[in-house]
Write a structure and sequence with these properties.
- The protein is mainly alpha-helical and about 140 residues long.
- The protein has one domain.
- Helices cover about 55% and strands about 0% of the residues.
- The protein is built from six helices and no strands.
């Protein structure tokens, strides 16, 4: 994911075993080894939401129940609002754009980040319900 590219691999290894590692990398929340998504690139729009049914390493079922990821919509809303507030502060106060251009900047950045927001929201949502297990990570 985008954040994984920004943070160097040694930095991400420090997060191993935490929920942040699974959220930022899109890996299994239980073992942190198997990938949750069929394709790592969120900008392949036909593949953005396609997930593996189970983890390839530990066998954890990602879709706990039908319609499980509907709850991720609420997380997506919160992530979108947080990004919008950050963009507003940067554009309006630091760059000095007027309100109309600030609004356009918010719309543009949210449109560009939409696939990443969707995936991160799913990652956050599934991490609410599952936790890291050292034994499954070693197996």
């Amino acid at each position: 994911m985008l954040i994984f590219v920004v943070l160097k691999k040694p930095t991400m290894q420090l997060l191993k075993g935490s929920k942040l590692y699974s959220i930022f990398t899109g890996t299994c929340p239980v073992c942190h080894k198997g990938k949750m998504y069929m394709d790592r690139n969120p900008y392949k729009f036909s593949q953005t939401l396609k997930m593996h049914d189970r983890c390839s390493h530990c066998g954890t079922k990602f879709k706990i129940e039908p319609s499980f990821f509907y709850g991720a919509m609420y997380v997506s809303y919160a992530v979108g609002v947080a990004i919008s507030v950050a963009i507003f502060i940067i554009a309006y106060f630091f760059i000095g754009l007027d309100r109309n251009y600030t609004f356009l900047a918010i719309i543009g950045v949210l449109a560009v980040l939409l696939p990443i927001i969707v995936r991160v929201s799913r990652n956050i949502w599934i991490n609410f319900f599952m936790k890291y297990d050292k034994n499954k990570a070693k197996a």
